[in-house]
Specification:
Blueprint (H helix, E strand, L loop, with lengths): L2 H10 L6 H24 L6 H6 L6 H11 L3 H14 L4 H5 L1 H18 L5 H8 L2 H34 L3 H50 L2 H10 L17 H17 L2 H7 L5 H32 L17 H10 L5 H33 L7 H26 L5 H25 L5 H28 L22 H16 L10 E2 L2 E2 L13 H20 L15 H7 L32
Antiparallel strand pairs: 1-2
Helix pairs in contact: 1-9, 2-10, 2-16, 4-10, 4-14, 5-14, 5-16, 7-12, 7-14, 8-9, 9-10, 9-16, 9-17, 9-18, 9-19, 10-14, 10-15, 10-16, 10-17, 11-14, 13-16, 16-17, 18-19, 18-21, 19-21
Amino acid sequence: MTLLENTAAEAAKSFTFGVTDYIVFVLMLLTSAGIGVYFGFFSKSKNTTDEYLMGSKQMKTIPIAISLVASQLSGIAIMSVPAENYTFGFSYFFMVVAMILVVPILNYIIIPVFYKNNISNCYEYLQMRFDKRTRKLITASFVFNAFLMLPVYIFVPALAFSQVTGINIHLINAIVCSICIFYTMLGGIKAVVWTDVVQAGIMVTSVVLVGILGTIKVGGLGKVFELAEEGGRLDFYYGLDPRVRNSVISLFTGGILLWTGHIGLNQSCVQRIVSLPSMENARRALILTGIGVLIIMGFNSFSGIVMFARYAGCDPIKAGIVQKPDKMMPFFVQDIMGHLKGMPGVFISCVFSAALSTMSANLNSLAGVVYFDYIKPFIRHTDERANTIMKIFVVAMGSYCILGGLVVQKFNSILQTIVTITSLSYGAVIGVFLVGMFVPRVNGKVAIASIGVSMAIMLWIIGNAQMRFKSGAIKYDPLPTRIDECENYNFYGLIQNRSTTLSSLENTATSTSEPPPLVTTAFGSNRPFSIYEISFYWYQVIGTLLVWLTAIPLSYVWSKPQEDEKLDPKLFSPIIGRFLDQQPREMESMPLKTPHPSLAGENLKITFSPKE
């Protein structure tokens, strides 16, 4: 068995799955399929590309906000975020808090640019601002990352479900993927959004119940924080050493870029935001999204602290009951909610709902991107033909996800590999969008060079970091845990495991005469500073900065000064655009009167076509 199978089997031992749980799970799938049937066959909507991808730009604010929140919580995150807080402390919450700054950044800096230019595909902006080559490069990055991640979204929860129920992993993977394909293909963006609403309800119910019932089980909120404080889970590192795995500044700064990129510069989310009829609707939706992310991710993080408080005297991992931190969440859910009929089914449905929400949004946006960037230039475009091709593509990609499960199953470190590969380009993508919106001198040639430099240096840094992980120079040991009170927990088979573990700990303790090894840990380092040993939470920040540090100097080499005056102010963030709008222009380009700042760009008679 592979590592994925072993850990899923370990988690499955903590679950009992009854008839009620099957009913809850099946109802979730049938509801999702039913929404697809409604929008595919019974909804009175036009069979146009705009309707399929954008809902004719008449989508409602609250459903879009809920859909965006649902997309930020993947099935993997439901399992790993509590484990992160359990293992390394509550500092991860600073990444969640970063959403408070992200909402105004999106509302007043990024999204207005898309609305002013009537953009439905965020990568279309790159062609308007730079050139077609820049758009193709970033689009290729989006497609490549989607191809890597799509098979994983469903496979990981399907693997856990298979271990719980005994149903063949590939059968459940095929069934769930087929339902996702079905409603995404038939209903388009409307089906994606409304299934997200249903699935978000399941996710919120599960995550909030876990936090509340766990707190009650421990003895109240005060007891939770008391035990967390004693266990070091509320100790925060405010220093500037970038090698510390979870520092406040790395998590907060990384969180700003993470949420900005995920929500404001990723086509799967941008497509839903610009499907709203006006910028005011978009602003309201993003405010609600920020509140929703703070609540659901906050509860998800808090669950890790509750989990630590529950097992403060007996760590199930150290005791040998649970094999990995990522498998603590199912164990914890069964411990505090297993006696409630249907609750294991709600939790499994929660994990699948998060996976389906992410997968369906990516399938829909990926179909649009591939069609308009790679297929439309070579065929005669009609709405009917475009919709047919995009539906075929959704089916093809869904089938790829089913077959991809066969490949995912063969790799022990597939998740770490995928996260590493996607980190190579993510910072560059954020950087090129921001430099395009803020630096008028940067042209297409400079943008492409900056992306290349950023990706190359990140490949170099991450590649060397992975080698140091394998050599043991970097070792992220968790915060201390205890097993001295395990007899009070009545875990089956624990005494033998406890004895073995205590014995091994004693043997380790007696060998302290040797000097400590030179190693970078999660909380510090006794090694000389090396950029290869910085926390991975800095990767996106570095990738973004590299674009800026390359683009600005190059813009004075490869850009002509007069090019700034020829750019449409609407292509820039409102902060920059208002100054560009006041620059002198050629006589034939100017209106008779200078427009009022509130009408910036509306009196201009000249239009600018995308560069080739």
